[in-house]
Amino acid sequence: MEAASAAVDWLMSRVARGDTQALEELYGATRARLLAVSLRTVGRHALAEEAVQDAFIKIWTHATRYRPEHGPALAWMSTIVRNHSLDIVRRGRDLSDVDDRLAGRLLDPGPSPESATEAARDARRICDCIRSLDPLHRQVLTLAYAHEMSHAQVACHLGKPLGTVKGHIRRGIFLLRECVAARPQAESGVEAP
User: What is the pTM of this model?
Assistant: First the structure.
């Protein structure tokens, strides 16, 4: 166990010097333990995964703050993961709610022709609204939902801070909801039965 701890400490020192390969190795070496820490706090695997990914961004950006004389790197990292997980619980943030609501609007709830027509009408309205979004909001929503990227992956892909990307995603969802609610069903181009 001491050898593993020393290896993590050594990887952390490389990460503090900006070594991205070391960050990848550190993630591989500690992900399972940190996921367990988060899972005990948030209780759901998907939220725990998100918390660990967000925490690794913090670990990367704050690696120079780690002080080996204060304890092992894994303990420092576990604290970051636990604190971020607690923040998620405190905010009552449930990222899957957004996915479920959007999926519920896109899926056909029943096999009847009327429900299929209604679903097609809704899907067309949503697509029209997505096209009407400004390019930034359309891009972050497409990456997050159509390409199934986590918020951290979208931030990395765009080269923007995670908080900024999360704000753009929230704003894009808000604008999309407003647009869908404001568009009458007949405007979608499908005649009502």
Answer: 0.47
